Amino acid sequence: MKKYLSLVLAVALAVSVLAGCSAPAATPATSSEAATDSEAQSSSAEASSAAPASGKTLNLYTWEGMFPEDVLSSFTKDTGIAINYSNFDADETMLAKLESTKGGDYDLVIADDYIIKTAIEEGLAQKLDKSKLENFANINPIYQGQFYDSSNDYTVPYGAGVQTIVYDPKIVKKEIKGYADLWDASLKGSIGIIGNYRVIDGMALKILGKSYNTTNVDEINTAGEKLKKLAPNIRLIKDDNLQDDLLSGEVGAAIMYTSQATLAMMKNPELKAVFPKEGIGFGIMANFIPSKAPNADAAYTFIDYILQPEVSAKCYEYLGYYCTNKAAEALINADYKSYLTLPADFDMKKMEMIQPITAEAEEAHSKVWTAFKAAAGQE
Amino acid sequence: MKLDDTPVPLPWQRREKRFSHNGKFILTVLPLYIFTLAFVAGPLVYMFILSFLQRAEVWGVIGKFTLKNYTDILDPVYLKTFWESIKLAVLTTALTILIGYPFGYFMAKLSAKWKSRMMLFLMIPFWTSSLIRLYGWIIIFRANGPLDKALMFLHITDAPLKLLYTYAAVVVGMVYALVPFMIFSVYSSAEKLDWSLIEAARDLGANPMQAFLTVSLKLTLPGLLSGVVLTFIPSMGLFFIADILGGNKVVLVGNVIQEQLMKAHNWPFAAALAVVLTILTSVMIYLYRRLAKVKDLEGLV
Where would you find the membrane-spanning parts of this chain (chain B) (predicted)? Predict the structure, then answer.
């Protein structure tokens, strides 16, 4: 009896292992049309909720939760194009998949700037036909012509991330105007920061009047020395949900990602968000159409749909990233506006994109960062 | 870890003689060899080779031989993380001995009914993921959390303490995560202890301390040493406790490896760090065995 039981259990275990293996393989890796069609019906809620009249499908590939549900469903209703929403966790996964399908399978991808640069260089993106985008002029020119697509041939930005300082005036008595104020001795043990060394080392670089993207190792090391003096003030280094520690009073001030700043400000409107006077670094998420998109026209329709000011405003309120649509700015709810758009008097020259740098500079950064973290732990 | 020490021959040991002649024995152990090769030796070899390659400019690896990854480790910044790891591991191990040894020792003296109950109490936390249990510690330690409130209620402190994201919080988390392993291995050793030997020592004039040091301690030494191995080795690598409870400020080798892999995209350097860490821990196990002159580390199998 026992023998049979153990046999059954062993078979069950083996089957469950196989099932675990086959599940991810069923997702979009297969390149045949039939597979994508059946997937659109089975895995996409949007597709099944509103049956497309035209039978067209948009294969959208991006992170999870990039659009509010009602925007997606009204797109399908208005245009008759069903959406097959597939998502990835990391930019690198997206690139690997596009490489394996040679730029096919997906009609539209939204990803981060640096990876788009690589995708364009590898010929995985196609040039945009701007005559198909009536609302192209709505884009805020600040976010155009950047390093990854200097003549705007391939991309349409969808949201920007600007790492900002957010602080609680109840805990921090000193008024914070820029990065340099964080070095103040009164902030001992009360700052939380994200674990992104390009951003944090970059703060020190900015105070010293250097570029975020310097490849000069001496400059990076000098910034490292400056950064070490900040160590006594650091309470916490964490990437996920840093806003929770600011809201609970564990830290008084924090340098965080845009989406976290938005969440924190929404929960506690008394917090203050600061545009550091030394200048800020930012990153952009953008749309591009893969070189062999099976249904590129659907992608154009979608980009143009999202670029409409009313739709765009809804998206940014939901997304919590900086609005890259100039025409939509006026329509964003006044409650959110102050942290979803740049202040009117903001000096564009002080904005700098955080770009990929040489391996040598990258290693210098990572060494400076390790030393800084260890110094923070000694306090 | 084996808790029951009666030497029951395992099925394949029993059948070995019968099968060895007709080759069926090889067939039965083949899956084991394939598994070991694929999932233990394979990744190790991969890691070892990777550690001698160059990183590509953006990401990825170039197939060119270099020793740079190893010379980079000699930088004081990274050497210090090894020192930090060893320091924390020694401290953690010392504290787990302090708590775990008496616990396991006296647990062996309980009645059979209470022994199994104790065992159950020790096992229950393992039903939950260790990560989730660590989040529990965050709730206890955080500003205005239960510990703060209790201390303030008792008028021991009058303002919230900053307990979370400190070195002490990391040590508590490490000891909490590893102490059951010490308890189990000391217990399995102490359980086999012939208590009449201690009585004999006492009859022959030894005071309780002498009897403990000369008889009990010597006889439970294998258990203690395997407990040391079981706590010391993992504590060299448990980076996520330092991450979560230490606010990322306690930088261990594990943290550097994780960061080089996930953020810096410098895979070869991460591999080199991992190789050095593996060698370091292997040397330490070897030293333990030499020093303790114990061939069979109890509970390790």
Answer: 25-49, 88-108, 120-143, 163-187, 224-247, 267-288
